[in-house]
Design goal:
InterPro entries: Cyt-d_ubiquinol_oxidase_su_1. The protein is mostly helical and 470 residues long. The chain contains 15 helices and ten strands. 66% of the residues lie in helices and 9% in strands. The strands form five sheets. The protein has a two-stranded antiparallel sheet with strand order 1-2. Strands 3-6 form a two-stranded antiparallel ribbon. A two-stranded antiparallel ribbon has the order 4-5. α5 packs across α7, α7 packs across α12 and α7 packs antiparallel against α13. The termini are far apart.
Length: 470
Amino acid sequence: MELDPILLSRLQFAFVVSFHAIFPAFSIGMASYVALLQGLFVTTGNQAWERLSIFWTKVFAVVFGMGVVSGIVMAFQFGTNWSNFSQATANFFGPMLSYEVLTAFFLEAGFLGVLLFGRDRVSPGVHLFAAIMVALGTLISSFWILAGNSWMHTPDGVEFRDGVFHVTSWFDAIFNPSFPYRLAHMVMASFLAGGFVVAGVSAWYLLRKHDVEANRKALSMTLWLLLVAAPAQAVIGDFHGLNTLEHQPAKISAIEAIWETEESVPLLLFAIPDQENQTNHFEVGIPKLGSLILAHDPNAELPGLNEVPRDEQPPVWFTFFGFRIMVGLGVLMIAFAVVGLMLRRGGKVYTSRWFLQGLRLMSVTPFIALLAGWITTETGRAPWLVYGMMTHAEGVTPSLSTGMVLFTLLGYIAVYAIIFWAGLYYLTRVIRKGIEKDAVDTEESHRPMRPMSASHVPFDSDDDVAPGRG
């Protein structure tokens, strides 16, 4: 492809969004988990819940900070690279982003300080309330962001006059046809991301026999969550697919690499799409299963990309493989959740080394699946910025040159590499230090105490950075 400002602007935005997306997704799931842990401690007085709450609050703080820093740049890009789009959609996105700041960001920022620094300065009930408000703020934020993104895929409640979108119904614009499915899909992905990270870290601690009581509790409750959330995500994805077939049929055609409109379409497990020749090579598929999954009818007719003009077809290669990576990892998540249920008998779920090691590796899969899903949905919308109404070429800043965008893209890559390294470094330190088992006074089970200093954390004699084996 020729390196033009439009392509480079798309690559730049894709890089920034992809880097940023993993942190809000993680923090949404983690905020809810911290609130749950604090609630369990307040209601039961069990110090194991508080130790877990203290530890995972630290993890949440690092991830939340990385999300804030990495997300600042995105707002600037709307003006620098997509000024035509910003001007055309200002009547809609201006209020939407304001609502997100007023209802979500202020809520998070207002109670985040109490959550992070008020554990021994306020009552347990007030600290629990702060944790709930931070978790609620992350969910409200996802509501507004997903409403805006969904509107770009299935625009509704607007009129496009003289190059400007005018809102005719705020209800229809916010609750556009794809919004409920996208919101549910993203929130569930966030819970899966947080759940598998907690499961992976807890498994690592159990392998090292670190605070066995607390980590058995964490692993057990998380596996119950995953057993519900992983299959639920598949069901939500099915409803989302039906909605996409109705409103964005070209995206479904690209996802399944369907070139000719036909009935009884097979489900392609593997193929090499050839967009130039509008065909596939080395197809491996299951007859009729594509129609059954996509339309709930094994004989259903599905549209082919040959009905879409060449210049309006999505890039099939990225959409096709992105979807299969996401689904493949989703099936693997379900498998681990089911195996965890089977191993509960006799407590093998806490002692089976192969399973615990597998959970460690699985902790990264939700983030890979998340990125693959975003690649699928965003490339499947191309070449439209607002589906069927405004293309990338119409929304880009007219004065941009290739050199300008390339310079900023390389700069973002360099800066984000530093941010990622620094965040990963501190996150790794928090995890390797482990849960501070003696951080609370067991005689005052209903009064949280200040966490013990790092110098008092028990360490292995043969590894001065490993968590203690107490």
